[in-house]
Fold this protein.
Amino acid sequence: MSDRYAVFGNPVSHSRSPDIHHAFAAQRGEDLVYERIEAPVDGFPAAVTAFFDGGGRGANVTVPFKEEAHGLCGALTERARQAGAVNTLWHRDGVLHGDNTDGAGLVADLRGQGWALAGKRLLVLGAGGAVRGVLGPLLAQAPAELVIANRTLARAETLVERFSGQGVALHASALEALNGRFDVIINAISAGLHGDMPALPEGLVGDATVAYDMVYGARPTPFMEWADAAGAAAVRDGLGMLVEQAAEAYQVWRGWRPDTAPVLARLRHG
């Protein structure tokens, strides 16, 4: 029988994860099945239990279940504990284990673009669960300063409290109070693929600034359009992060890290 994996979410029909993991498996001729499971909003624990009781080997978790997955685990990696959210699950010795590969996936994609973070001034827009999942790995890259900016300042301040003490100048800001140029700007504001970007002060983007949106779609996001119009040197979406975090999860489950470049190219160009 094929090894069985899945991604849990609600909704989840749009997920590219099955395509990605099947492409990874093909690199070494491994036999696995990876499916989408749409769990009821109030039925995630039961769905996960049924999956692993039925012989499931591992699972990914997407919106809105990452925090709930964290609470189900009997063992957590350090990065999952730090994030307070889990996107990768597996069973070992009767214990549900959880990891969070989002931050590692983001950093791997940024490095793949040739974007260094060490010593840079870094701006992260948003203060929700997506940001909490990536802050630890971003701070580990030793930027000179990291500013978390959010509509509600208190939420950004909460993240600063949670992640301070890592040797990086970490600050919270309201969106309208931002000032100065940043080397790298990462967007995790839920405007996402639709709607408008919140108004931001001028002068945040210089001619060497690179801009990254953690979401992805068939067309540029409002954030990407804003950054491009402001004169950013390069603008990217989050499809590479999706592929890289999947490779990190695959390594957790299968013990080797797939080659992400051909998989990303196939997703981008069909």
